[in-house]
Amino acid sequence: GESVGLHLPTLSVQEGDNSIINCAYSNSASDYFIWYKQESGKGPQFIIDIRSNMDKRQGQRVTVLLNKTVKHLSLQIAATQPGDSAVYFCAENLGSARQLTFGSGTQLTVLP
Amino acid sequence: GAGVSQSPSNKVTEKGKDVELRCDPISGHTALYWYRQRLGQGLEFLIYFQGNSAPDKSGLPSDRFSAERTGESVSTLTIQRTQQEDSAVYLCASSLRRGGTDTQYFGPGTRLTVL
């Protein structure tokens, strides 16, 4: 069935290094993708989004890359900080569907 | 401005009891969503409201689950005859529903524990 999945369940990086979190999706009809950050005990927080007619979008310290050929999405965090430690979810909007479909999440741990 | 709020933040109940969870969306947001998040897992879509249109209930796991929304304001999610497998965090989100993108903003969730 249609799904959004993450390659790695956990990721540890040194403070100051760059982080890359990957996500695969299977529905070629998906036209909108979002990355969320979820800290312990809180709801998901919007980080950055990208439409399917783009292949790259940059925000503050974050960049999302979309490769439609291989149905792959990534989130790059520059100069990772301790406050970046959280679970990161990618989500897709499946064409005409209004709800988002979420992957299982990647736990990012920033090491001192 | 105020974000999405949910109440209660925590709810502990006994198996077989009914529970009601509340969501107050961001003012002006026409769309409202409910999701369920089991421990260590992603979010499962439950139900979607858009204005006065009929809700999309395709994600509700059983007929024990129901939700209501008054206009474009508060929504309540009701779980009847709760079961232990209903234990999860229930998250509400709202969005403006304009154009082709639909950024959803989430509340802090209600953690439900069924004993």
Give me the secondary-structure topology.
The complex is a heterodimer of chains A (112) and B (115).
Chain A: E1 4-6, E2 10-14, E3 19-25, E4 32-38, E5 45-51, E6 56-58, E7 62-67, E8 72-77, E9 86-93, E10 100-102, E11 106-111
Parallel strand pairs in A: 2-11
Antiparallel strand pairs in A: 1-3, 3-8, 4-5, 4-9, 6-7, 7-8, 9-10, 9-11
Chain B: E1 5-7, E2 10-13, E3 19-24, E4 31-37, E5 43-50, E6 65-69, E7 75-79, E8 88-95, E9 105-106, E10 110-114
Describe this structure in words.
- Chain A has 112 residues and is mainly beta.
- In chain A, 0% of the residues lie in helices and 54% in strands.
- In chain A, β4 and β5 form a beta hairpin.
- The termini of chain A are far apart.
- Chain B has 115 residues and is an all-beta fold.
- Chain B has one domain (5-99, 106-114): Sandwich (Immunoglobulin-like), CATH 2.60.40.10.
- In chain B, strands 2, 4, 5, 8, 9 and 10 form a 6-stranded mixed sheet that branches. Chain B has a 4-stranded antiparallel sheet with strand order 1-3-7-6, with no helix packed on it.
- The chains are: A mainly beta (112), B mainly beta (115).
- Chains A and B meet through β4, β5, β9 and β10 of A and β4, β5 and β9 of B.
Model regions low in confidence, pLDDT < 50 over at least 5 residues of chain B:
none
Can you tell me the CATH topology of chain A? Immunoglobulin-like
Distance between the termini of chain A: 40 Å
Number of strands of chain B: 10
According to CATH, the homologous superfamily of chain A is: Immunoglobulins
Task: Provide the gyration radius of chain B in Å.
Answer: 14 Å
* Percent of residues in β-strands of chain B: over 45%
Protein chain pair with the most extensive contact, residues per chain? A-B, 23 and 26 residues
Structural category of chain A is mainly beta
Task: Provide the CATH topology of chain B.
Answer: Immunoglobulin-like
Helical stretch count of chain A?
Answer: 0
